[in-house]
Structure formats: structure tokens, C-alpha cells
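Example (one chain per record):
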Amino acid sequence: MTLINEISSICKRLESFGWKQLLLKHGLDISTNYLKEELQKELTNIDRSLPGFEDFSLEGRRGIEPGNPSRSLLFHALASPNVVGDSNQNIISEFPTLAEIETIENYVYGSNPLSILDLKARADGRNIAICVFASEYRPAPETVHKKHADMCYSRTGVSRVGTTSALYDPMIRGFLPFVDDDAHNIRVLPAKYSVFVAVQMKGSKDIFGPMRFDALLEDNLEDNLVSDKEQDFWVPIYKLFSGKDCIEGLDLDVKLICNHINEKIRRIHKVLNDPDFITGWGEPDISNPPFIFSEGIAEFSNDESFGSGLLVPVAHNRLVEEAKYQGKYLSFRVPSNNSTLSSSLSIPSDGPRRAPEYVHVRTKVENENHLDLNNEIDVSNIVAEGNYDALHYVDYTGDGWVKAVCPQVKNFIERQVPAYSLVTAPDFFPNTDQRELMETFKVAVPSDLKDRLWVITPNALCDQRLPPNLQLKNVDFREEDKTVTAIVSMALEGPIGQVNLHTPLTNRHSFLPDAASGVFAPGWDISFDNNSSGVEHLAAYGLGSPFPEDSKLCAALSTFWPAVAPDASRSFQPNATNAPWPTVSPLTDTEIGIEGELPWDGVSGPHYVRDDNEVEYPEYDHADYTLNALNNKFSLTLTGKVDVVEYQTRVVSMARAYRVLGSRSRQERARWGIISFKQIFPQDSELDSVNNEIRNSLTSPIYRFEVYQHGTRKPSPDNNPKKIRVSIIGKRRILIVSPNIILMKIGEGEWEVKNE
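Predicted structure:
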């Protein structure tokens, strides 16, 4: 079947569900028997006032504009997550499949196929290659240039592990991680890859980007950083797909192959083993699974409704599992007098991460029995002293590559550039991207509040300028390729009009690297190492083993780890001395399990003990995210409802509350513990004593904080090592923080309006 016949079949399937009348509003008749001609004609009455079409390119004039998806009205209508209503703005009942959108995209190029000579002419003497990109069609505010809705491309894709299969929601044109009626199951989140002919160009903010041009340069004081205008980027110019409609005179067979690796356990042993200490394992064992493995991480879907190139993490019943080797549980000798952070084994590094920075070692193996060291009062000291056997745990994260196989084009274009692929931890805020957090940090947060947030800038992975994992085998990753995580557009041609950017927020998972966190120390989604030449590169094996070890430390040390990740610092006992980490983006009482029964991490937060004037906390060193993941206690049911506006508002509200409390430095902020945080409304009974004029002037959202200054710590009365009590110094404060007013009362005193 030719492409135009496939397009006709798609249109016939969809026309009776409201799509025919919707597109007729723009003068495009998808029911005609002359569809090819209809898609080519100029449309003179495109109605950009219709919801979902506000950000359709002002230069768009046709149903299909050859070689340009963003100027193709049919593609925009079917691919944009904001086109959801029919001509009367009733919700459409049937939407295109991912495969159908891919077919429309292919026709954008196949409607006027180019020849190899055409492609080389477009390269205009620049380097040309067959490149693999992760790609996504986005509304205008989320694109590289923010001029109109457009395709966004990156040579890095980010997929996420889970406990059950992927779920595509055709209405939002994306995947969701939630499982109806099962709060503790998490769906895997795939990444979509395609093959393009691309040319190499120096960065150009006004032509193709990259997104957040020179962001890393602006956020750092280092003098060795290179501007994006001096960096080399691969920019797509033409899509490759199977069949005779793609390249003039050729019948293409385009395939994608992939390989991923998890070598965290192997690297633990390579780094820890030395002449003075033996972990119990060495070669050749540590070159076998589960020390290092590729099976069970990710594979391409064979579901026809998903089309081609959808890389899907393999779903496992549990996020982590006990490691086994040769039919037995796999354990290793924990070094004596070792480094720790909390109760995790820490593998020291002078920067690059040769192995996981943090390792779970709290399951002691003794005579084939598994002993949970979290039940011991001095678990941190036991870990620090070491000299016992600890059980390894395995997760199914990893990194790898995606390559294109297209022999017909390779005969003419020899260079092939693979994509870098990350299979990483679940995203507990799927509706809030790292890029959005950064843009708020730079633009929306008042300058006098910025110093009250993160210690370092919350950069996204798309801003990193490091090559992919240079130690991966069987792949042509190069040291000079430092823009692999950048997001680019196709090169813009001519003056481009600015559309209305007031479009709805998209509530779907993104698999491009602006939705992932950058390299921290080590990070939430990615770490870094260097190769034998000393060249720094991205690598996944520097993350925790298993990944929940990082999740716990990143979440609790919120002010140092500026990722869009749960801020669990208020869940555990405060510490303002050697490790002051105050809350930055508070989780609500419901999200941490003080109210309800769905703490995101399986750990119920603190509660106020009125009779003793104390707060009882889960004891941080004894909280075990790895075992909670093993027992499927994680949940993103509640945090998954938080969109970017809510997340940003919490960050600013917390900073304003600290300002009213007179706390500027990180140490001063860390003196305050947060007993309660929740959203309330003006009619809340607690505000009955507030002056009616003030009460009625409160604007939403309104947050209630209950805070205290913390004193001494002591064991819980029942000597439960997993609980700890913290005394309250003086009187508690209750703050009501709205966008225009802050109220505070001390103890049982009167409400006061506080000046900021």
C-alpha cells in the first residue's frame, strides 16, 4: 500500500468521530476521493482561534507541507496534545494511534521524496550522517524556539522503569505512568526514536537552537566552558522510513537496533577490590549477570499500534530484586572502616564516578539467613565498621545506544550517528519537567528569594555538554560529541511569526532530556565518569545500587539536589549542624502519609506529640527505600497530580515563609522543622478568627505551614530504632501563605499580617 493510501485509510477511520468537521473549519476536506490534491492545496481560511490551533505555525498553508511537519495542518491536528475538541468543542471520542501519527509524519516527507543528490546538496558541504533522534511534537511554549508548535529532536532519549506495561493515552498523544485502582503499580515509560539524515552545524539560537541556548555557560563561573555557538550539533533535515516513498529511486528498509547495559554491581567490585581487600568476587565471575547484564532492560515494541521505534523498558514485578548468581543469593564483603552517607555505603570519588556512589548494604547475610540491619539501633555504625557480608540488590536501569540500519542509504551516506539511550528511575512528578523548573528559577522567582532555594543551579540534562558513555562497546560514540543531550529543531527558514503562547499545559510524560535532571553528585537520572584518556562522559553506572539508594538521599537532601524529585526533607528528623538541608519544595501531609495511607516513598511522615511537646519522626538512617521498592511501597498516585504551576508555587511559598521567619541562610532555614503543610481555602475554620476583610482578600492557592524550632533528639518511648523524637523549642508557628498576603500566629496567639 502506498503512503497516500495509508493516509486515506487513517482519514476514513477518523472522519466520523468529528475530525472531518473540525478540519473543514480550516477548509481541509479529509473525506474527499482526491485526498492527495486536497492535502497539497493552499488553505486560505485556517482558523487559529479554535482551541488547539492557536500555536499552529503562522507560515502553515497546507494540509501537508512537504518536508515540514510544523507547517502541515493535518499533522498538527493529529499530533498536538492540545487538539482534543471537535468543531463544536465537544471532546472527540476517537484519536489517532501513535502509529497513525507516525504515518502522517512519514507522508510529510514522502509526499515529495528527495533524491540522494538533493540531500547532499542540502548539506552544502557540511558533514552529513544518518542519525537517530528521540523526537516529540510539542505545543509552542515547550519547543526550542517558542515561535509555534514544532517537532523537538534530541540524540538522547530517556525512558523509565516500572512494574507493569506501558499505557498510551491517545487523547494526550503520550504515555502515562499510572495504573487505575492500583496505587503501588507504576507503568514503564517508553521513548520514541526515528531516523533522519542530519547535517552538522554550529549552534544558532535563531535557526535551530539548541533549546536553552548557552544555559550552562550562563549558570556557571567556570572559564573553560564553550558557548553553544562554538559547539557542533547534528540537525535533522530529512526523515528516513521504510518503503519506496522516502528516497527517490530507492526501496528503503529502515530498522532500529539497541543495546543497554547495567554494570553497577560489577563496578562496585572492580573499585572495592584492591591488594588489601577482597569483596569475595572477581574475574571471571564479575563479567557475568547480574554483575553486568543487558537482558531485561529495554527492547523495541512489536505492538503495531505504536508504530516503529518505540523503545519500552521491560516491566518487572518489582522495581528492585534480590540479586542471585548461580542459583544463590549474591552477597559481598563490606569493607571495614568505610565511608558512609546515612546508612548507605559510600564509594569515595574525586569527581568522576567509576562505580555507584551509594550502595545498599543493610541486608546482612549470615549462614544463609538475611538479617535486616535497619532493626539495629546503631545501623550506621554497623555499616561504617563493615566486615560482614551484605546482599546485593539489582535494578533494571541502565544506559546504551540505539542504531539505525539502512543499507540502501548507507551506500551513499557512510557516517552513522547512534542515539544515547537512558533507562532510568521512575518520575514521581511526570507533569513537571526539569526545564520548567529551571525557567521558573530564572524568570519567575524574585531575585531576593533565589538564594533561599538550591545550593547549585537546577540544570536539566539537555543543558549538559558531555559526550555519551564512551565506555560502551560496539558503538561509535566519540569524545568530541558533547551535544548528544541537546534538544534542537529543524533549521527555521525565513522570518518566523510569533503565535499565541497561552496554550494549555501538557500533562504527559516527556522522554526528551529537558524532562530529566542533569549531572549532580552523582544525580537522579545520570552520572559521569572519564575514560582512559581522561575525557569526561555521561554514564549511568555512577548512580546508586540499586537506584532507590539515590532516591532516598536526593529526596532528603533537597537543597543540594535540585531535581524535580520529591523533597522528603521534612519527612525525617531535622539537622541544623553538620548537614543542614531545609525543605525547598514541601510535600503535603497527604503525600508523605501523615494523612491518608499513600506516602509516595512508603514512609509515613512525622506527627506532633502534644502531651510531650515533641515531634516523632521516622528515623532517617533506618528508613530503607530499597526494601520499600522491593515490597512495592512506592506510589506516584498523589505526586503525579502535581503540575508545574503547583510545584513552582510550593517552591516560592516555602521561600517566602522562611523570609517571614527571618531565616536567610541555609543554616538558619534548617533550624525550622515542618510539622504540617497543606493547601487550605478561605472558608477553612482555622481562619474564623481572621479579620473578614483580610480573609476575603486571600487569593489562591493558600498554603498552611506549621513549623517549629527543633531542640534535642531522643529515642522513641518504645525504643523503636526506626522512630526518633525531637523536642520543640519555644512555641510553634502557623503560617498562612497566599500569593498576596502572609499571616502568622505564634502558639495560640492572634493572627498577624507579616511584611516580607
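Caption: Residues 1-110 form one domain.
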